[in-house]
Hints:
By secondary structure, this protein is an alpha+beta fold. It has helices spanning 3-18, 33-42, 54-67; strands at 25-28, 44-48.
Amino acid sequence: SSAASDVYKRQIVGALADAGLEVPVVIGGIVPDDDRLALADAGVVGVLGPGAPAEEVATCVRDAAASRGRG
């Protein structure tokens, strides 16, 4: 996996869990396809690529917020 994906898994998602926060995490940027499954397994609910259209961003964030009460 890439170094950036490791940072997301360890530092961001881990810190939220350590703080007892159950919040959806959506990330953006260049994320290698091989890292997407590992990020999902770590708790990232959405990955948006560079230049994602506003509609895609809004849908992803809306779906992430709606998923908060599930699971």
